[in-house]
Design goal:
single chain, 9-stranded mixed beta sheet, 3-stranded antiparallel beta sheet, 11 helices, 19% helix
């Protein structure tokens, strides 16, 4: 993460690349950034905001107490109080971070996959996302097991369905001043504890709302052939840590291909990490993160789900209709049954004909604001095909076919580059 301070604004940038040449030049990465003005420069802002508190909590968890430097012989300094001078109330995302430690009590829901579960539990999505799949795309496969994957899946599948006929419009029909849907006391929102018990079949009721229900996990991971034919050959696999033991922990039906020919990134292996729930060309939400698929990054529940154990520092940004609504204004229709989001997240159409078709569909609903994300890989992804010899990449193995550089394995690289002799 970068936090860049200017005279009149702060820029927060969350990215998936390490600070090495190869990551920025030879890999597919993800970057999110937004500029925030000084408080008071655009009217009276709130004293604080969810994004501001999440940013400050993460910075303090990193142990950052301020920075001192010299410019033109003059000593300068930056402190946490400096960041609080900026207005983060229009942030288009929520931060999902991970911090090492045992997190209990209120901290249980502040970090890792429990933070994601909590945020999604406060959202309501169109009915089309009931039992829809969740794509998990990452560049390092940690030690996982069926129990933990089921736990993680429950967090990914949290969330409610927009209420249908017979439910009061007020439950989700209006938004508060910050663009988030209002939550009157008469409407029960699913709590984090409710979310941990989400049923595994169809859309079920939670108080006055239905949960989205569980959806299948789709693991998007390059094949051996993808690595061999990539721009740097098997060397690309050095940034895809994946032992044979960890690869074997993933059920074969979960493997899906990295397909990015439409965006020109098919041979540029992905170091980005992203997670999204989708249906067709629409996204319920999208998370760009540094977190790979591992218990270390996301945390694992212990002691009857009373504490979350996390091993590493991670940071990601969650994009949803309500987070985008913080900047774009009211994000739910009123006077309709059921109310639907005014904001819909859609895949960016990479070819001209698809763009025209998408524009035509958008014109039929002028009151709905469509936000297009440039997701580099294909959704839905294709499953591995054994008849095509699709095998998941494992960086420990030698491979019979050599790449364009005459190599048969990923070894012999330092910092992702070819080892010089």
């Amino acid at each position: 993460m970068f936090v860049l301070l200017y005279a009149t604004k702060a820029r927060v940038c969350v990215h998936t690349a390490n600070l090495v040449h190869s990551d920025w030049n030879n890999k597919t990465q993800g970057v999110w950034f937004q500029d925030f003005p000084l408080k008071g420069s655009q009217g009276a802002p709130p004293v604080t905001s969810p994004f501001e508190e999440e940013l400050m909590e993460y910075m303090l968890a990193l142990g950052w107490k301020g920075t001192e430097w010299s410019m033109n012989g003059e000593s300068r300094s930056t402190s946490p109080a400096t960041l609080r001078q900026f207005d983060f109330s229009k942030a288009e995302v929520r931060l999902v971070g991970s911090v090492p430690g045992y997190h209990r009590g209120t901290a249980l829901h502040k970090w890792g996959h429990m933070k994601l579960r909590t945020l999604l539990s406060q959202e309501a999505f169109p009915r089309e996302f009931c039992n829809s799949p969740v794509a998990c795309q990452f560049s390092s496969l940690g030690s996982i097991n069926p129990r933990w994957l089921a736990e993680f899946q429950q967090s990914l599948c949290a969330g409610a369905v927009c209420p249908g006929p017979g439910l009061e419009e007020e439950s989700l029909g209006h938004s508060g001043g910050d663009g988030h849907p209002s939550n009157p006391p008469s409407v029960k929102r699913e709590s984090a504890s409710d979310a941990s018990n989400i049923p595994s079949s169809s859309c079920k009721m939670f108080g006055h709302q239905k949960s989205l229900g569980m959806g299948p996990i789709q693991v998007i991971w390059p094949t051996v052939q993808d690595m061999r034919t990539s721009t740097v050959g098997y060397t690309a696999g050095c940034s895809f840590p994946s032992s044979a033991k960890n690869v074997s922990q993933v059920e074969p039906r979960l493997w899906h291909k990295w397909e990015a020919g439409h965006s020109g990134r098919q041979k540029v292996m992905p170091h980005m990490k992203s997670f999204t729930r989708y249906q067709g060309g629409r996204l319920a939400w999208f998370l760009l993160s540094s977190s790979n698929l591992s218990q270390s990054a996301w945390g694992s529940l212990q002691k009857q789900a009373s504490q979350l154990f996390v091993r590493s520092y991670e940071l990601g940004v969650l994009i949803s209709p309500s987070t985008l609504g913080a900047r774009l204004g009211q994000c739910w229709t009123s006077g309709s049954y059921p109310p639907i989001p005014r904001i819909r997240i859609c895949l960016f159409m990479w070819d001209e004909e698809a763009q025209k078709s998408d524009a035509l569909a958008s014109s039929s609903q002028p009151s709905v604001h469509q936000v297009h994300l440039q997701v580099p890989y294909q959704l839905p992804p294709s499953v591995y095909n054994s008849s095509h010899d699709d095998r998941p990449w494992c960086w420990e193995l030698k491979h019979p076919k050599q790449d364009a550089f005459g190599k048969h394995e990923a070894k012999g690289a330092i910092f992702y580059g070819v080892k010089q002799t």
